[in-house]
Amino acid sequence: MTVIEAARALGKVVQADERYVEYINAKNANDADEELQNLIGEFNLIRQNLAMESDKPEDEINNEKVKELTAKMHSAYDAVMSNENMAAFTMAKQGMDKLMSEINTILTYSVEGADPETCPSEPAADCTGSCSTCGGCG
Question: Which residues of 109-134 are buried (b: 16+ CB within 10 A; e: fewer)?
């Protein structure tokens, strides 16, 4: 088996994992939730208007408008995040992100010469996630 074949096999196993299934189901529920999509659209529109106002030259910025748009944006964000489908998606995404982090950690340790069967599946406590400044794990 080549490395690419093994990666494809791993992809199939990941797609069979319950965390992946929960993530996809939650993503599909979000996509189908018309109310949630409207809330997200409203949030994005407010954020865009705030960015446009904030990008004006300093002497042209309407601080009262910025304050009002900021408050509206926070309110819209809270509405998005309090949606039950978004809450389920957030939890499912955290599970999927943890799984991918564990896979990446094992691969990283393996590339550095560690035994794939016994190396940790979680990065060292002082790991920042950026290999560009890393002195090496463990």
Answer: beeeeeeeeebeeebeeeeeeeeeee
**Could you read off the pLDDT of 16-39 as tens digits, one per residue?**
999 999 999 999 999 999 999 999
> Exposed (0-12), middle (13-18) or buried (19+): which is 57, by Cβ within 10 Å?
exposed
Q: At which residue do the structure tokens 């690419």 appear?
A: 4
- Alpha carbons within 13 angstroms on the beta-carbon side of residue 21 total 5
In terms of Cα–Cα distance, which of 92, 87, 93, 94 is closest to 33? Answer: 87
* DSSP letter, residue 126: T
Q: Which two tokens stand for residue 10?
A: 């791993």
Q: Which domains are present in the chain?
A: 3-105 (1.20.1500.10)
> What predicted TM-score, i.e. pTM, was given to this entire model?
0.75
